[in-house]
Amino acid sequence: MNLISALAFVHPKAKMGDNNVIGPFCYIDKDTVIGNNNNLQNSVTINVGARIGDHNEFFPGCSISTKPQDLKFKGEETICEIGDNNSIRENVTISRGTASKGTTIVGNNNLLMENMHIAHDCVVGSNCIIGNSTKLAGEVIVDDNAIISAEVLIHQFCRIGGYVMIQGGSRTSQDIPPFVIAGKEPIRYASINIIGLRRRGYTNEQIESLHEAYRLLYSKGIIAEGIEEIKKNLPLTKEIQYIIDFVSSSKRGIIR
Questions:
Q1: Nearest partner of 113 among 126, 128, 124, judged by Cα
Q2: Per the residue annotation, which of 120, 131, 196, 226 is the catalytic one?
Q3: Cβ neighbours of residue 156 under 8 Å, at least 6 residues apart?
């Protein structure tokens, strides 16, 4: 049984599971699907195209599956997928997709802090923390277990690697490879994210291997030569292969 405030509006064509709480002044539009055990506190807007999983909490003022802020959007049918166990704080906005990809995706177990924005066709993985007022432009990809601090600006089409820590107030127009701390102005590689990796259970030996990988990667003026140095000098564990694959496939180039 759902608990829906008399002051909320739920479109008759919205689909809803069980045990959801819909607070006062919430607005749930048509062509929306909401799973089970979600809590919409109050003044939450769920727009056309939202596909929401289970056990999510939405705080006041957030707006999900908003119309993309993209002039190429012509009203095509697109969606916004939200997984399970996410905490989506006050005034967060998440746009639905465009014809480019069709879908904006947010995974599971994420904390999206107050006033941050995820633009059209972004893909945010799972177990991420994204800080207050951070903005992700269109088609940004954030891999699992990334931590992005407050007031970070990320250019469209960038990719953020897993297990990173990005310093508050940073801005990037290039990809940020996995396992690193990135910061300063202009943004650049600072070190391996040692504390974050230890919290995730990485051993000292694994952390040292990652540190050596980045020493080799950045030791050459040409990134491709740095990748060859990694291949020659380090065992190709899944973490090292992740770095190689990430850097090799980067279309915007990586921070240095």
A1: 128
A2: 120
A3: 119, 137, 138, 139, 140
